[in-house]
Amino acid sequence: xxxxLLRPGPLLWITYEDRETGPAxxxxxxxxxxxxxxxxxxxxxxxxxxxxxIDCGAEFVFTAGEQLFFNDKQFKNDxxxxxxxxxKRAIGGRRARSETRTTCSECGTETTxxxxxxxxxxVLCRSCFQKQQAKxxxxxxxxxxxS
Length: 147
Hints:
The protein has 4 helices and 6 strands. It is of the alpha+beta class. The chain has 3 domains: 45 residues, no CATH class; 48 residues, no CATH class; 31 residues, no CATH class. The strands form 3 sheets. A two-stranded antiparallel sheet has the order 1-2.
């Protein structure tokens, strides 16, 4: 029975000796780490698997080493993107915002805004918006009158 050790290292050996022939003859021997892994969980065997990228549809290999890493980190899901698509997503960063052309409710000039205006709400151009922000907010003081 061949043994495939995922984590080579110092091993202890279990040996069975034939009592009839004496302690000099070893009948069987195998590493304890295969029977009792360091983590206390049963040893898992990983093999390379072919997965499909959800972005480009290309097949990519999820290697046994990557699976061991995912298992050690206790990740529950398999990767969904190939390395090329993962790199594109990392470089791409933020997505482009859509601009909407509209007229300013204050001064009437045509402007673009980074959102879709809703009916009934005023839309301001940059200069009118900055003027409104610069104005001190006047608080309405409510006084209670005795009844």
